[in-house]
Amino acid sequence: MSGIKKPVKNYNRYSNSLKRKIAKAYISGQASYAILAEENGLRDKTVVKEFVKWYRRKLELEPDFDIQPEMPENPNILSEKELQVRVKELEKELHLAKLKAEMLETIIDLAEEQFNLDIRKKSGAKQ
């Protein structure tokens, strides 16, 4: 032999609970392949298709497969990736809130100038 090695593919391994959760979501009609792939950070929808095939095959071979207890997920514990996504969402919301506040301040300034009114409440004003 010439010593040429066949390339070995590096497959990602996913937990059975993740595969089961995603397959059940698809089968119950909660979402499409593409949406489930995007929501769970998978490469593409073909991975979800494989999960569904795996799940159906397991149910055929082991009818009690779906009865196995799943590890309860603690909703308070998020992965580092999920935390980073959440931080980005919150930063975006904060940025939009600051823009909205600035816009409202500008509108009030313009209204006060154009209509010669005091719109803002003055401290110490009688109620």
The first-to-last residue Cα distance is 96 Å
Class computed from helices, strands and strand pairing: mainly alpha
What is the mean predicted local confidence, pLDDT?
82
Percent of residues in helical segments?
55-70%
Number of domains: 2
Q: How many β-strand stretches?
A: 0
Task: Provide structural commentary.
The protein contains 4 helices and no strands. With 127 residues, the chain is an all-alpha fold. It has 2 domains: 59 residues; 43 residues, no CATH class. Helix 1 crosses helix 3 and helix 2 packs across helix 3. The longest helix has 36 residues. It is elongated and about 85 Å long. The mean pLDDT is 82.
Summarize this, please?
The chain is mostly helical. It has helices at 16-27, 33-39, 45-61, 80-115. It is built from four helices and no strands.
What are its keywords?
single chain, 127 residues, mainly alpha, 2 domains, 4 helices, elongated
